[in-house]
Design goal:
By secondary structure, this protein is α/β, with parallel strands linked by helices. Helices cover 48% and strands 9% of the residues. The structure holds xylulose-1,5-bisphosphate and magnesium ion.
Length: 261
């Protein structure tokens, strides 16, 4: 088998979490006496900046503020983000955000097939822990050999740093691994790290440019909600499993060798 590991993104890929993030940000702003309230259209724009702290900084940069006020607000960002993370983990721990279709099935299939698992995300370890514990139970994190998260790297997605970090920790070459992502930033990061990349766009990233993706599907598919039409034809099945990923990786590898790549 040429497939040795799957490296999965978190927000938007494992679960559609960004509405919970948006609510958590707005709660933190209110609690800090700030009259900021990120609407859904505004948040969709802001999402193009990865990393919660970086996202707040990008928002502040566009505000018309006297220099002294700007400096004071920028100084507040770490504590704002800490409060936001507490809000987010509370929302996630409530159980209101489920895993996306087919995620648990694919993780189980990978485990049963001896395919190693990694995470490569911009969010914090705290947020990953909350999502995985709530959806898959207290042993969920043990499924993942490597968890690459947030500030572990200097440059967040679309920089390849987090994927390179996870590949290095796995001790695997990029061409024996497959990335699963939901956004153009995540796709850019995974492709820049040399990975075959499958994209399952989320509610927030539909319409982004996924022309670089090696495979794009509406979801991973599940027995309850199987893939249909073009997606089912592309995969040759109602669900994307390890077998189908392995086949696609082999075809890509052969095509690369044939082109002298
Ligand atoms: C998506 C992100 C994160 C979240 C917010 O991460 O860009 O910043 O939007 O989480 P992923 P933080 O790479 O998993 O798609 O506030 O913890 O950054
Ligand atoms: Mg994502």
């Amino acid at each position: 088998m040429s497939l040795k590991a799957l490296i999965l993104d978190v927000d938007g890929t494992l679960a559609d979490t960004e509405e919970a993030h948006r609510r958590a940000f707005n709660e933190a702003f209110r609690a800090h006496g700030l009259d900021w309230n990120w609407s859904k259209p505004q948040y969709a724009e802001l999402l193009l900046t990865t990393g919660g702290k970086e996202r707040i900084a990008a928002f502040v940069k566009k505000l018309f503020l006297p220099a002294a006020d700007r400096a004071a607000v920028i100084e507040k960002i770490p504590s704002l983000h800490k409060a936001k993370t507490a809000n987010y983990t509370r929302i996630i721990n409530s159980g209101e955000v489920p895993l996306r279709d087919g995620v648990e099935r694919l993780l189980d299939e990978a485990r049963d097939a001896g395919i190693r698992l990694g995470i490569a995300t911009t969010t914090t370890f705290e947020n990953i822990q909350a999502l995985l514990h709530t959806t898959l139970g207290p042993a969920a994190l043990d499924r993942f050999e490597v968890i690459g998260a947030g500030d572990q790297v200097a440059h967040k997605k679309p920089a390849p740093d987090i994927y390179r970090h996870v590949l290095e920790k796995l001790g695997l070459p990029a061409d024996e691994c497959v990335a699963i992502e939901d956004s153009v930033n995540g796709l850019g990061a995974a492709k820049a790290a040399g990975l075959f990349t499958i994209v399952t766009p989320s509610y927030w990233t539909q319409g982004e440019d996924f022309s670089e993706a090696d495979l794009m599907l509406p979801s991973l598919g599940s027995a309850a909600r199987p893939l249909t039409h073009r997606a089912a034809m592309l995969v040759g099945n109602g669900v994307l499993g390890i077998k189908e990923i392995e086949e696609r990786l082999m075809v890509a590898k052969k095509a690369r060798l044939a082109s002298g790549g």
